[in-house]
Amino acid sequence: MQVTCPSCRYRTEREVIEGEEISCPWCERRFKPLPAPGEALEPPVAVSSVLPEWAAQASPSPPKRRWPTFSATFSTAFILFWLGVILFMPARSRWQETQDKANSPPGLILTAQGEVLKVVFSPDGQRLASGGGLYQPRRWVGGEIIIWDPSTGQSMLTFSGHPEKVVDLDLSPDGKRLASAGPDGVKVWDRITGQQLFRLHMPAHQEPWHVAFDPQGRRLATLSLTGRVAHGRGPMAIELWHTPPTLAEDRKAPLLSLPFEAGSSDRLTFSPDGKHLACGRDNSVMIWDVSADRQGDAAPVRKIEGHTGPVRDQVFSPDGKRLATAAEDETIRIWDAATGQEQLCFDSPREGFRGYRAIQCLAFSPDGRRLAGGKAQKLAIWDAATGKELYFLAWHTGTITSLAFSPDGKTLATGSTDQHIKLWDLAALEHWTEAAQERE
After folding, report:
1. Cis ω for the linkage preceding 407 (within 30 of 0)
2. Phi and psi for 417 in degrees, rounded to 5?
3. Signed CA dihedral, 11, 14, 18, 22: sign only
4. Beta bridge partners of 261
5. How far apart are CA 43 and CA 25, in angstroms?
6. Which of 267, 287, 254 lies closest to 168 in space, CA to CA?
7. What confidence score (pLDDT) does residue 32 get?
8. pLDDT value at residue 8
9. Cβ contacts of 144 within 8 Å, gap of 6 or more
């Protein structure tokens, strides 16, 4: 008959005599089996008659123990390990950020309310203007303009420039006016009071990207997307406007229009004498002669080619003899501005993944001896004559979008998507670098 142990529930087939006490072969507990419904126990028989048969039968072997694949102890340790990692990494990141900033190069840190997309010094170096916006899920809000005192880091004036974001801004040569571009158009402000002086009349479908005053402050150049983008290319236009408008009609129509088509186009740069205007177009840079105040369209007088990737920024040297360009091919090139001949070519810093090493923005120092560039979150400074890398500095946690030297060349401002502006003290940078090398 089938016998089940009441303790461990181990089952076995064996013959049982009524009233007999048996031992479980698995847990060794002794018990008296009860007959199952419909079954009867064997009547008692002589021991001598069953002993030989009982001895001949081999007792059934107990089943093997099956251990769980993951024990409770291992599972608990596994969960605690990853919980520790999750809690430790943010704390480690905050600690590392604190250490990096404590050991960062000397200079003031300015904090905006949103991403900083452009920084520019006033001609006397007494003020710094910044523009940007706060990016919330799937949209920009609160395009603010801030006027700073770079000597103290204090905000002197803050006002809303555009409903969404400020994509670009520039200060007039006299420092009294500020031009800003946003998705809703181009506006000109009083830099001291923040009052809007006027706005340029543009078609509703036209989206301005960049603005730049000429060195004399008489004209304002704008770069805009003027139509729909198809197959990665779209119609663009550079327009020159009188500033301030002498007549009400002047602000409704540009003085000069320079249309072109491009897959990518970034930045506007006047030559120091105001006679030429440079703009990137795909893998090249176009230079127009804008010395004459005339109505109508004009073709570029020079096209500088050599890059194998889209040009991200171009800037004239202070004497106007050279033009520096940075492109997605991860090179920086310096050209003769008059002839378009390449004078120097050097690579951006090799740090990082290929495709993420390109310099996004450039600036010449006022003496023309140094060239600065923003590469992702880091700042690079080169000798402009040789291309030798002088400094490669890390501080920002977001992409550097804009940089500007102060007129005296002692400070370099960098704006970033991390909502900070870093004012690098270039005079103390050499001593800090030597001290950092000694610490290592």
Report:
1. no
2. -75, -5
3. negative
4. 235
5. 23
6. 267
7. 74
8. 74
9. 112, 113, 114, 131, 132, 133, 134, 158, 159, 160, 161, 166
**Upper half-sphere CA count for residue 235 (Cβ side, 13 Å):** 8
CA distance 342 to 284: 13
**Looking at residue 56, what is its pLDDT?**
44
pLDDT at 88: 79
Is 100 in a helix, a strand, or coil? helix
Q: What angle do CA 270, 186, 246 make, to 5 degrees?
A: 75
Beta bridge partners, 11, equal 4
First to last CA, the chain: 83
- Quote the radius of gyration of the chain (alpha carbons, Å): 39
- With tokens 């990137």, the residue in question is 280
- How high is the mean pLDDT in each 10-residue block of the chain (440 residues)? 73 72 76 62 47 46 52 76 81 64 77 95 97 89 93 95 94 95 94 93 90 94 91 90 66 83 87 94 92 66 93 96 95 95 92 68 97 94 95 92 96 96 91 65
Phi, psi dihedral angles at 41 (to 5 degrees) = -80, 150
DSSP code string of 186-237: EEEEETTT--EEEE----TT-EEEEEEE-TTSSEEEEEEE-S--BTTBEEEE
Distance CA 267, CA 374 (A): 14
Tokens 């491009």: give the residue.
262
- Length of the chain measured in residues: 440
